[in-house]
Amino acid sequence: MTQLTEQDARQMIAVVNTRNVDRIVEQYADDATFQIPALNSPLRGKEAIRSYFKGSFEAFPDWTLNITKVFVSGDETVIVNSVSGTHTGPLAGVDGKSIAPTHQRFVEDQMTRVVLNENGKVKSLRAYGNSADLYRQLGLSK
User: Fold this and answer.
1) 2 vs 75: CA distance, rounded Å
2) Segments in the chain below pLDDT 70
3) What is the pTM of this model?
4) In a domain? residue 132
5) Interatomic CA distance for residues 84 and 66, integer angstroms
6) What gap in Å lies between CA 65 and CA 85, rounded to an integer?
7) b/e sequence 79-100, b meaning 16+ C-beta within 10 Å
8) How many domains is the chain built from?
9) Is residue 1 part of a domain?
10) Which range marks the domain in which residue 58 is found?
11) Looking at residue 1, what is its pLDDT?
12) What CATH number is attached to the domain comprising 105?
């Protein structure tokens, strides 16, 4: 496994903040897994990850990650971050139905665990946060 340095982790997030889906997906291994709080199960592979980011950026054109801290231990990196955005485009719900824009802004605190493969590509990314709070902030639940 390859180790992700703090500088590498910050650069990886900087690429995500460009909202350039092709550049983002280049950072992942072909067989990568991607899990965030709003998903019931991990996404597998670049095309699923591409589809997720494309949909997220359509729903939240100002979607941004902000890093608070980065911890590196062996081949694992933990990034303490927040994600924010304004819901101005259609959002795919967990049931697959489209959720109309609420025009509400959200901020969600997360911890993200990243593991690289031997080629320096993201093998596994798992974010931990509170998706119930996200839906509450968007006015979709109480």
Assistant:
1) 6
2) 1
3) 0.91
4) yes
5) 8
6) 9
7) bebebebbbbbebbeeeeeebe
8) 1
9) no
10) 6-137
11) 58
12) 3.10.450.50
